[in-house]
Amino acid sequence: MNWLFRMYYTLRLRAIYSYHLRYKKKKNGLGEKLKQEGKTRWMDMGASGSFSDGFFFADLYPPEEANEKLKDRYFQFNATLDHPQEKFSQMGKFDLIRMQHVLEHLPIEGIPLALTNFHKLLNDDGWLLITVPDLETMVNMYRHKSLDIPSAFAEWAETRVEKGSPQSFYFSIFTHSLPHQAHYWCFDQEGMEYAINQSGLFKNVKCLGPFNKLADVPFTHNRPGEDLCIIAQKA
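The structure assignment produced for this chain is given below.
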């Protein structure tokens, strides 16, 4: 019945995009909610050159390599390092810290310190928004031999493996990623919520599904159908 799962996945992906691009009222998304509350200082952590309007940006590369027009909004920052207070004072506080497909590139040992750093950078009751590839989704696709369904993931995987390769080849791309962007960890909803709750630094930790009223493509989900989105507030 693999064809049935493939059809289900394809139709679900189309439904997600149709909902967000045609029917959803953008005023109900997380970004608009924060704007209405006057919470507009946002940080995109690990932007990797993908810049979104309204955000400050942080990544590993030095400031001189940043986009010339955005240098005044860019910070060099390694989330897994213990930074002096001067660094946090320089960056200031944020109402939202967003990490889209970044946390899976950190070693699991570095995640507690990363969450501590985010906590220091957030205003009171500020939001932490994390999207990661969803292990449960990818395992289900592997079991149903559907990882090669035309999608953002398939296009990305086929930069390293030939189209039509065995499903194990596609799954290895998911678990290990590109040579210079290795995936160090895999998360499902339970694991992501566990990591955040273990820190003791956040409250209201919950999964934000693609049809949740606060969800907004690409503000919250930049790879709908593939990613897991978790939001939490600073405790």
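Interim note for the steering committee: The chain has two domains: 25-64+85-134+192-235, 138-186. The mean pLDDT is 92.
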